[in-house]
Structure formats: C-alpha cells, structure tokens
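Chapter review: from sequence to fold.
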Amino acid sequence: MESHLEHSIAVSAPPSAAFHVIVDAISWPLVFLPTVHLERDDLGVGKERIHVWALTNDEVKAWTSIRDVDSDRLAVKFGQEKSTAPIGAMSGEWIVEEQPDGGSLVRLLHDFRAIDDDPASVQWIADAVDRNSHSELATLKAVAEQADVRDSLSVQWDDTVPLSGDAADAYEFVWNAREWPARLPHVDQMRLEEPEPNVQFMEMDTKTKDGSAHTTKSIRVGFPGQKIVYKQTTPPKLLSAHTGHFLIEETPKGLALTSRHAAIIKPEAIAEVLGADATLQDARNFIQTALTANSRVTMEHAAAFAETAKAG
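The token string follows.
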C-alpha cells in the first residue's frame, strides 16, 4: 500500500532562488542538516542520478535516485531506483510556485511503500520523511532568502601530501580514528561509534595552535582504500556548516592524499570568536589556517604510517 505525504513552506525570495537550492543537489551536505554526502551523475536532458547518504531517524541510510529537472515548471521529480530497508519504494516531487507578492511557495511531495507493508515500518518511514522534510524546507527558506550573501560566506580548499606507502595503510590510519588521541598531537579525546560497516559517529576534542579547544561531532562514511567523507553535525562556533573528505588517488606525480574542506562561516559568531574588530576576511583566514593545520598533520602522520608499514 502506498502512502502520500506533502509538506510546504512560504519563502520570501523569488522562485528562481528557491529552485536553485533544490537543483544544486551537490551542495546539499552544506545546506540540509540530514544530508551527509551526495554524489551526482549527469544522465543528460534534464536527468541525473544522485547517490545520497543521509541521517534518517538517527541512522545513516544510503539510496540512489533518478531526478528529472523541469526548469520551465520549476519542478524536480525524483524516484529511488535503489532503496534501503525498510523502504520498499520512494518517489516524489519538489515544486516551486510563484506567489502574488513575488515570493515562493515550495511544496515537497513524497509517495512511499514499506517492505511487506509492515505497519511499524510505514510509521518509521513517515516519521523520517516528516522530520527531514520540515528540516529541509526550513533550511531551504533561510538559504534562498539569504542568497545574496551566502556566496560570500562560503569557503572551500584542498591540501595534498604525497604518499610513498600503500593506499590501504594510509586509509587505515585515517579511518581508525579511535587511535587518534595516541597518534595525533591535536586530538585530546575521541568518542567513536560504528553502528555498521563504513559508517562512524565521531565526537572529538581537539586543540588549535593558539591553544583553544574545540569539541566537534561528525558523521563519516568510508569507501575502503579510496576516500572518507564527513560532515560535522556540531561544527566549531565560527561555522554553520562544515564538510570534507580525505581522498587517496593517483596523480601525475604519484600516489597522494588530499584533504578537502568546504564550510559556511557564521557571521554572527565572528565578533565572539575573533574580537569586535574582526572582519569576514579575518574569519576566512582563521578558518583556513586552523583547519589546514589539523588536516595536514593528520595527512602527514598517515603518510608516515603508510611508509613505515611498507618498509616493514
């Protein structure tokens, strides 16, 4: 038996701004709280396949959907081609409607079926859809209404170190974060849960070069031997969102380990964290310096670990 749910929200921004948030799915991990990681394949003619890892009723679930983007109707249809239990099937549509005042009404429709029509599973799915839809629509509203300033708050960069050891050993060092307090100078404490293979919930106490301490919470998804992606569910005070990855790949110069950071600065926190006279550029510099320092130390230790392992 199929169930139907609809959620909506009024947005004080033009339909084009609201629609852009929906279409730009690759940015969802920085936008929507439930979305941990997303990968996109272009299928041509307004079609795309998205691979999603998201927090669903406090569990990380993964699925693959086909999306049809209709820019004329300002609508995006989606259907899961590969669902995760207890979902048997899931489809729906994002619809943006222009309002008389120039604003928008965003509607989010879901049609779903539980495996074997189990009533408990139907309720579980309905609760997850309801929770995530309210969260996503509220965030979409905020992002669309602040579209003119959001770009200025975004920062993204990569740092890379060469690897002379094996990829598997470098990956093991980065994934085995339970050992980081003993292996990395900036990590004081680590609380780690692995509810299923290749998924981690991490709470970490770290310190920066200036001596300040931070507690962050993250969700990490591992792709063994290749990459580890993460999203901070509790980022540092200066950020409203922070995602990244550790990627192991062959480059023209040989094997390398790359750390990528993507973040959104929280402007109202700048004065509290950096002082009353600090600017947005000061915040950018501080964030990049602090995060680069910690991730580079992690990568350098991972490279040394892999080199030592290779040498026996």
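Two observations follow directly from the output. The CA atoms of residues 88 and 114 lie 5 Å apart. The mean pLDDT is 95.
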